[in-house]
Amino acid sequence: MSTTLLISIISTAVVYAATVLYAAVGEIFSQRAGIMNLGLEGIMLMGAVSGYMVAVYRQNLVLAMLVVILVGAALGLVFSFLTVTMQADQTVSGMAMLTFGTGLSGFLGKGVSGVNANLAFEPIAIPVLSRVPVLGPSLFDQNILVYLMYLIIPLSMIYLYKTRAGMILRALGENPAALDSAGYNVFALRYAYVTFGSIMTAVSGAVVSLAYTNFWSDGMTSGKGWIAVALVVFSAWNPLTATFGALLFGAISIIGIDVQTVFPQVPSQVFSALPYVATIIALIFTTGNFRGRRSAAPAALTIPYDREKR
Amino acid sequence: MIRNLRFRKRNSVSMARRILTPVIFVLLAFVFCGFLLAAVGSNPLAVYARMMKTVCSYSGLTRSIEAGIPLMLTGLAVSFGYRMNLNNIGADGQYALGSLFCIGFALYGPVMPAPLKILCMFLVSMLGGALAALIAAFPKAKWGVNETILTMMLNYIFLYVMDFLMYGPWKERNQMVAQTRAIREKYWLPDLGSSGINSVLLVVIAIAVLLYFFHTRTTWGYEMEVIRQSPRAAQYAGMSVAKATLLVLCASGAIAGLAGFAQVAGIIHRVQANLPNGAGYTGIVIAFLAGLNPLVVLLVGFLFGALQISAVAVQLIGVPSQVATMIQGTIMLFVVAGEFFNRYELVGRKK
Amino acid sequence: MKKEMDPVLQMKHITKTFGSVTANRDVDLSVYSGEIHALLGENGAGKSTLMNILTGIYRPDGGEIWYKGQKRDIHSPKDAVALGIGMVHQHFRLIPTLTVAENVYLYSGKKSFFLNRDKMEKEIRECSGQYNLQVTPEAYVWQLSVGEQQRVEIIKLLHQGAEVLILDEPSAVLTPQEAQSMFDTLRKMADSGKAVIVISHKMNEVMKNADRITVLKNGRVEDTMPASEADVERLTRGIVGDRTLPEQERGQNSEPETEQRPVQDPEQEARKEAAKAGLQTSSEEPVQGLRQTSPAAAEGAAQGQKHVCGEEVFFMEEVSAKNDRGLPALKKITLSVRAGEIFGIAGVAGNGQRELSEVIAGLRPVTEGKILLSGKDLSKAAMKQHIQEGIAFIPEDRLQTGLVPELTFTENIILKSYESDRYSRRGILQKQNMRDDAKTYAGQFDIRHGGLDLPVGLMSGGNQQKLLFAREVSGDPRLIVAAYPVRGLDIGAAESIRKILRQQSRRGAAVVFISEELEEIFAMCDRVGVLCDGELMGIRAIEETDFQEIGRMMSGEREETK
Predict the structure, then answer these.
(1) Which helix (H) or strand (E) holds A187?
(2) Is pLDDT of A261 > 80?
């Protein structure tokens, strides 16, 4: 394999990973808290369109990201209101979020559809590091959102496994009643993590529209939200494993294009479908109730917490 | 005056409340969307009036029904699964596979008399949908794997299969569009007289009535209800929960697969890339709004068809057609929130 | 021994009601530092409620709590913890995906942003060393046995600085060896100056391990004594009360027919009874199965006649089974029940009764041994076959298992026979038949319901149980298993239920009757078997035994038949 090909594979995989990993890490936190948000695709589209609109109309990337965060927070609050306060069915609420986000983003984004913003997060080569053969150009000649992702992965791992708050989060999706009896506010915690997850998802959407494809079109995330949900399950609710999964999915999608030139008889759709097949197999093995195996899924996932039922 | 308000669980919900609450929240959703429309500079009243006008015309009505038919079927499929607490969000994929089986049989299957051929198309599209669901149903029944995520992942896989066939071997020759050629006219289901409504609607209505009858009058419907309410009591009564899970999910898939039959035999007579176009997800909204009642699903499915048709019409006055999806999503958010008031009531806390 | 000190904790005149049920009435309790104090009583005697008040889960309706000489209001579990009162619940509140150390630190008040695992684990090791509580701090809780999990719960309390430790039925989930080592640990904690309260219903373990014993009955304190002054007789009297002798009881409460018991000549007697039952089928008195209109009823009567002869209907040999946690719950049980016989199962709750009832009914798999119904082997049969063979089952949790609370009266009556010809024709429900039978049941068994189309969850407990019985006896079952059928019912409903069971046995059904009320067992049964720790301690004919002997057997003494 030639060096340029390798660089292109790694670099594409990394960029692809960035488009889904923010959402996946956010969803890991949300699901660890016991709330499954299946509306990621909708929230992602809202993040993508709101960021792109600010970029077109205000030509300001910082402002764009701020708006994206606000939009994510607003949608997260709506979703936590439905699932935590109203104790609504999480699948149905997720579908509502998905439909709402898809529709509203298409509706609002009509004006910027196909419009060139002439503004995007450009790659910044990091001195010295970007000179390292192969890894340098593929990992350290990226845009700032990718670098931020490099930071978020270890930070989320440390938070989850090394801090007291992370320990509480891991308990939250397992046994909220126990936490409640220990004096923690289950409702506030769930609100916080669902909202955090939604913000991260919206940022993921902005990565797509402002750093990956650099345009807006209706439904442009084309299933990346679902890939993020799949990654959460695939990774057994672990951000680091999710990173490997995202890189793998990214590599598969790019290698698919390359391999197709070598084996034209294999349809490209086979490679596009591979991440989903992988997720199904992973899902069965990580959560299947086989003899003597424990499911990796948080025990209280999708179960609304009702104090009266304690 | 009253301080310390709190929510209390209702013991029972009156019929009037069960109908009125969603209606009120649907109206609120339209009000909310009105603000959004105004925010982008449209006159919401003008837009809604235009939508009403479109739907109320005769051609609007027939087109609404046409658009509503696949939605009714996915809605029926989803509500059937939900009747046993099974989240089938894979109706999109089941619809896709059902339509592929149907078109495959219609175009490449044996030549036979039209009625028999149509009957076989009907059956193979059910088979396709059921097979698509089986892949999720088996791990669910056997190992308790979450069917929500399984069915969702399968959507993408079957849509890619569809994609491959539409752009690849089954593509109509000398055409730009990714679609199959049309099936022979003698295999088309006829329109109802000169009404412009295809007779496949009768099939859908028959299925809904059959399902209604199934839920309320048959022992299998009874068994599903017991399992839904109390798996432990079901075990006590000697029922096999795993077997029922397998059958119900596959049946749900089969119903979704029929949407493919409806398109091929009744409406567009061919299959296009991304034919389901999110009908599976809309089906979830419909099932939920209809309270899982198959007969109400028909009504709600029709209304959602009307919404999609009217959204196309308002494009003429400069409103993006995505307004339909937006209104759908808003309605759903509001109705989901409204559900809470069916379960709880606001009371002042007694000291 | 420690009487000269002031009690560390005093509960005075505690009263607590739930709706119309009084769970605690004017309860006084004093607990001293350095003692193990046992709270003894039947299920529903108010032990757990009292402790839940102490730990702030419930608020008392009346009474005071004094702790270390001060009157205290305990509003929440947090308040209780702050005072130094902690409880190990019967269902552990551990988080399986966290380690032992993390579970302990989730509850301790020390706030720091990062987790210092080394320090956490070291502290836990110190604590476990001090009281000989063996745990592995870095292990995940899901990897632990039940006994280890219990030790983690105790360490959790100690780490929070608890000085009064309450344990709810701590030995219920343990093997005898584990239970003994747990009590040794509790002794060490008491010796170090802590007060330990143990909720229990096992007399022998309490006498052996506690310093003082308080007996609760019907929400009141019945007796309180130093363990040294306790004996089986006194405790039994405290738990079940100074009740009238069973013989008198029987005469007072039951209908005239029952006076003919105990059966002198079973065969002759049974034939007479069966004839009576047959007659009554056509009379107004509802004795028989309910489908009087159907030919099945006549057939059932004929069958009944055959079986009433005292033939052995049910036989289980060396049957073992596991509980939900996978631990052995039944150990080589052998028993047989004859037609027309009511066989009582006595014993302190939680000694395998639930598992025994489920094994007989077919709901729980048998790990070892053989089950025969009229000679037919059902050891491996599915639930459905048990139903078809005519085994009726009144489960312990009637509203969760026996009925579907969300379904209507009419829908609940067909739960077990929905596939029968009467209710289903080619898969179509026969609603008219369902309604007819529902009406018949309601009339015959005097079931009061708000409407046949309302969910049964809205009915009262007594009427729910009558409905359950009506359905279960409708097919003229050969064997009826009734687990605690009158628990929680008011007197009237309880009497109707007993009446139904007697009528069924007269018809010729074999009945297994599980109860924790000895009085009731003596009034109802022909023979009684005593369960203790999953073993059958012995079987006695009711007229050849007395409360004292059964009480001894309940506490684990095995006596050979005289």
Answers:
(1) helix A186-207
(2) no
Residue C561: other Cβ atoms inside 10 A: 8
The set of chains that have 3 or more CB pairs under 8 A with C is: A, B
Least confident of A178-187, A257-266, B87-96, C4-13: A257-266
B218: left (phi over 0), alpha (psi -120 to 50) or beta: beta
Phi-psi region for residue C533, left (φ > 0), alpha (ψ -120 to 50) or beta?
left
Calpha distance C532→C537 (Å, rounded): 7
* Residue of B85, B230, B247 to mutate, testing the C interface (most C Cβ within 10 Å of its Cβ): B230
The number of residues making up chain A comes to 310
User: Residue A212: exposed, middle, or buried by beta-carbon count in 10 A (0-12, 13-18, 19+)?
Assistant: buried
Predicted pLDDT of residue B127: 97
C453: left (phi over 0), alpha (psi -120 to 50) or beta: alpha
C-alpha distances out from residue B346 to B7, B9, B25, B341, C195, Å:
5, 9, 17, 8, 44
Q: C240, C275, C304: which is the final residue of a domain? A: C240
Same domain, C356 and C215: no
Q: CB C105 to CB A167 under 8 A? A: yes
Number of domains in chain A: 1
Low-confidence ranges of chain C (pLDDT < 70): 1-4, 19-20, 43-44, 109-110, 172-176, 240-309, 325, 349, 559-562
Q: Is residue A222 part of a domain?
A: yes
B337/A86 touch (CB, cutoff 8 Å), yes or no? yes
* Token representation of residue B57: 């015309």
pLDDT recorded at residue C343: 94
Query: C431 in a domain, yes or no?
Result: no
pLDDT per position as a tens digit, B181-224:
999 988 999 988 888 889 999 999 999 999 999 999 999 999 99
Residues in A lying within 8 Å of C, measured between beta carbons: 162-168, 170-171, 174-175, 177-179, 181-183, 294, 298-299
Bridge partners (DSSP) of residue C330 are: C321
Tens digits of per-residue pLDDT, B96-137?
A: 999 999 999 999 999 889 999 999 999 999 999 999 999 999
pTM over 0.90: no
Q: Nearest CA to A68 among A110, A27, A22?
A: A22
Judge whether C207 lies within some domain: yes
C419 contacts on B by Cβ (under 8 Å): 219
Q: Does one domain contain both C279 and C221?
A: no
Whole-angstrom distance, CA of residue A158 vs CA of residue A143 = 24
Q: Structural domain tally of chain C?
A: 2
Are C385 and C290 found together in one domain? Answer: yes
For residue A212, tell me if it sits in a domain: yes
What is the CATH number for C223? 3.40.50.300
Distance CA C407, CA B318 (A): 52
Q: Which domain holds residue A13?
A: 3-230+297-309
CA distance A169 to chain C (A): 11
